[in-house]
Design a protein that fits this description.
Helix 2 packs parallel to helix 3 (85-91). The relative contact order is 0.17. The chain is α/β, with parallel strands linked by helices. The protein has one domain (3-248): Metallo-dependent phosphatases (Purple Acid Phosphatase, chain A, domain 2, 4-Layer Sandwich). It has six helices and eleven strands. The radius of gyration is 18 Å and the shape is globular. The termini are far apart. It binds fe (ii) ion. Fe (ii) ion is lined by residues 9, 11, 51, 80, 193, 195. Residues 9, 11, 51, 80, 193, 195 line the site of fe (ii) ion.
C-alpha cells in the first residue's frame, strides 16, 4: 500500500539556524521528516504543498532538495504564494514544470493517481488555477478515468473559516468544483496555506488541510496570530480507500507562546 507524506508550508530560510516567527523552520522540517519515517514503514512519495522557501532564494530550494534526497524518497514540489517557480524548477529538475512556467505533476503509484496543481499568482497571496491548467486537469482526469486520485494544491478550494486567509483562497474554485462533479474517483483535495489540519468538502469531494512543518495558524484570527500546536504533516495511506492521519512533533519549547492578556499569567507548555 503506497504511503504519501504531505509536507506543507515549511517556510525555510537560507541560514539553517534562522528562525521565522520564533520557529527554527529548517530544524522543525528535519524533525517532522524524521518523525514520519519513524512512524511509517516506507514512504513512497513526499508531496510539498507550497511556501517552501520563505526567502525564495535558490540556495534554500537546493537545501530542501538535498534534505529530501538524503532520505531516498521522490519529492514532488508545488509552489505556494511564498515561492519562486524558477528556483523550484532548478532545484528539482525531475519536476521542472509544464513548459509554461507552472510547476505541476501527475504521478501514478500503486493504482493511485497523484495530481499536483500550481495555484500561484506571482506577487499575490491569493491563488488561481487558470483556464489552461483547468483544461490540463480535465484531460488528466479523463486519461485516468476511475483511478482513485488525490489532488494536491497550495490554496484551499473552499473557505476554511479564517476571514483573512479566506480572502486569499483559490479564486477559481467554482470551476474546479464543477469539473469534480463528474469525477467521483477523486478521493480528496489536499492543500496547505492555512497552516492547520482541516477537513471540509468541495461538493462531494473531501478537502483536507495540512499543518505547517513550522508555525501553526489558528482557526480564527480572534484566537491570535498563532496556534500553540507543534509542527506536523499529513500522511496518506493509499489502500482500497484513502486513509489519512495528521502527525505532530511532541516538542513545544521553541514554539511561539501566546501573549498573555491583561491580568493573565503566561501559559506554559505541557
Ligand atoms: Fe504558508
Amino acid at each position: 500500500m503506497p504511503i504519501v507524506l504531505q509536507l506543507s508550508d515549511p517556510h525555510l530560510l537560507q541560514d539553517p539556524n534562522a528562525r521565522l516567527r520564533e520557529v527554527p523552520t529548517r530544524q522543525t522540517l528535519h524533525e517532522v521528516l524524521s518523525l514520519a519515517f519513524e512512524r511509517c514503514a516506507a514512504i513512497d512519495r513526499v508531496v510539498l504543498t507550497g511556501d517552501l522557501a520563505h526567502d525564495e532564494t535558490p540556495a534554500t530550494y537546493v537545501a530542501l532538495e538535498g534534505l529530501l534526497r538524503t532520505r531516498g524518497v521522490e519529492a514532488l514540489p508545488l509552489p505556494g504564494n511564498h515561492d519562486d517557480r524558477g528556483a523550484i524548477a532548478t532545484a528539482f529538475p525531475r519536476v521542472a514544470g509544464a513548459g509554461d512556467g507552472t510547476i505541476r505533476f501527475v504521478d501514478v503509484i500503486g493504482g493511485w493517481c497523484l495530481i499536483g496543481l500550481d495555484s500561484q499568482i506571482p506577487g499575490e497571496d491569493a491563488g488561481r488555477l487558470g483556464p489552461d491548467q483547468l483544461e490540463w486537469l480535465r484531460q488528466t482526469l479523463a486519461t485516468h478515468v476511475g483511478m482513485p486520485t488525490v489532488i494536491f494544491v497550495h490554496h484551499p478550494p473552499i473557505p476554511t473559516g479564517h476571514p483573512v486567509l479566506d480572502d486569499m483562497g483559490l479564486l477559481d474554485a467554482d470551476a474546479l468544483a464543477s469539473m469534480l462533479e463528474a469525477t467521483p474517483w477523486v478521493a480528496a483535495i489536499c492543500h496547505g496555506h492555512i497552516h492547520r489540519a482541516f477537513e471540509g468538502r468541495l461538493g462531494s469531494t473531501p478537502v483536507l488541510g495540512a499543518p505547517s512543518t513550522a508555525f501553526q495558524f489558528p482557526a480564527h484570527p480572534d484566537d491570535g496570530p498563532f496556534e500553540f500546536l507543534p509542527p506536523g504533516a499529513r500522511v496518506l495511506h493509499l489502500g482500497s480507500t484513502l486513509r489519512t492521519e495528521v502527525i505532530r512533533l511532541p516538542r513545544l519549547e521553541w514554539l511561539p507562546r501566546p501573549k498573555p492578556k491583561p491580568g493573565e499569567s503566561t501559559p506554559t507548555a505541557s
